[in-house]
Predict the structure.
Amino acid sequence: MAAPWHAILRRHGDDEDPPVVGAVFEASDGTRFIFGSAGTLHEAESLAAEASSKMTTILAVRPYWGMPAIDWIAADPEFWKPNPMAKWR
């Protein structure tokens, strides 16, 4: 199961902040977005503090927000049936 909290750090390409562990996306303007996972809000806040970045966002991940309502499924079960091509982990 994925961690329920994520710290997203935003840094400009020339920042000299200490390295941070996480998945990195770099935009064309040199801004780097670093995504780190944590099991608790406290751990996410610790990640953000270690990063010493002024631009940090902490998000809670709620997988159930991606689930359709039961009445939506009942209204069009063919549309909502599982995709046989999707791979389960």
The CA atoms of residues 44 and 62 lie 15 Å apart. The beta strands are 5-11, 23-26, 32-38, 56-60. DSSP finds three helices and four strands in the chain. Residues 5-80 form one domain.
